[in-house]
Amino acid sequence: MAVDCNEDQHLQSAWLTTIAEELQKAQLDNDVIFARKPCIYKVPRYLRDADKKSYTPSVVSIGPYHFQNRHLHPMERHKWRAFYQTLNRHNHDFKLYLDAIKDLEAKARGSYEGEINLNSNEFVKMMVLDGCFILELFRGVKDGFDTLGYSEGDPVFSICGSLDFIRRDMIKLENQIPLFILDAFIAIQSPGYDTHYLAKMAISFFAPLIPTDEPVDKGADFTHLDPQSHHCLHLFRDNLVSKGLIVTKPAKKLWKRRLSTNVVGKPTTQVTYCVSQLREGGVRFRKGETDKFWDIKYKNSILEIPRILIHDGTKSIFRNLVAFEECHPKCSNEITAYLVFMNNLIDSAEDVTFLRYKGIIEHWLGNDNDVADLFNGLCQEIVADLNCSYLSGLTNEINKCRDNRWSTWKADFRHKYFRNPWALISAIAAVVLLLITVLQAFYGLLSYYKPTS
Question: A Pfam family in this protein (predicted)?
Fold first, then answer.
């Protein structure tokens, strides 16, 4: 009987432990619901299906969405190396970092869209490893990886390693962790640090991805950046569009999701002509004076567009920026508006060739047709309404100029008769024939009324 009694007590204890664990999970779930302010999203399927590669990390997983992807597991060992180097350099106990994230767990989970299928220990460990990994990369680019204790030619923590691929992965929407995780670690490592210290390091790290040649000034003022930027992609976007750009209605969405191919949105204010047609209509193009690629101006039939650099990573960068603008309800869509504008301007490789000739586009792709395909494909699943965008007044003026009856007639005539040498020769021959016919008729009438004696 004593044995049965002990067994009953053991079962009762195990049952009570199970209840306690479930209540602990319920408490965490409750905390997460209260703390839920999602800012890191899953890319919508209708966007992902158009180009899965642009949204999927190739070498490193950051955050929970791609945590289980087997092809990204080799980088986990390097995350442990980063954590070890961090602890060794600062002489810290690893529990300090675990405890800091434990306090932020509910808030961190609430930053992600949907449920995260990781238990508390797994989630906290992932945040610690990813956070230390990112900070080591930021500090390495800022101060030099050798000063952090990494060997020259390190496969990850060096300029000549896989840094370019890692950098591109870290700018993908599904591959993010909240910036307050990084702030917590900086507070541990450097108490009393500058508020913009993290932003400065991040912008310097992502500088090679900026689609201009604008150098990053280490002494630049970073106060224009939103201190509420949620993650690296958000911070990168803020740095692109916040430099003097005035948005009249920043919280208003300027897009509509395309639910089917038959959906017709309300009329939108967009440039309805490509570069070739605008040129034929009398619009002239000029390279903009600034390095801010979105800083487009139009005056006196001159369309001024700043230079943009296109490379093999540009498509992925813009796709993820557009996806974030589409998913985040408090985010306006300057990047989307810019891309829709350029997509409408570029109809063929001929348009790209002209813009490249004018210095507006520089690219490292195979040919001009690849650039045209890039812009034409970026906004495939987006129906943008530019009526309230920063480009709306400009596009109205361009369309008015091109829609002018005299300009339209000239453009149609040029488009029809001057696109190739044979058409030009035919047009000239027709004009000459018309003149000869008119002259013959004139002299025929003249001879009839005033015959020669």
Answer: DUF247
- What pLDDT digit, counting tens, does each position of 307-361 carry? 999 988 899 999 999 999 989 988 888 898 899 889 889 988 999 999 999 999 9
Q: Which domain holds residue 439?
A: 420-453
- Please state, rounded to an integer, the average pLDDT across all residues of the chain: 81
Q: How far apart are CA 288 and CA 294, in angstroms?
A: 10
Kindly state whether residue 13 falls inside one of the protein's structural domains: no
The pair of structure tokens assigned to 13 is: 């204890």
Q: Are residues 395 and 451 in the same domain?
A: no
pLDDT of 132 higher than 90? yes
pTM for this predicted structure: 0.78
Q: Is residue 218 domain-shared with residue 302, that is, in the same domain?
A: no
- Look at strands 302-305 and 284-287 and give their pairing: parallel
Same domain, 385 and 305: yes
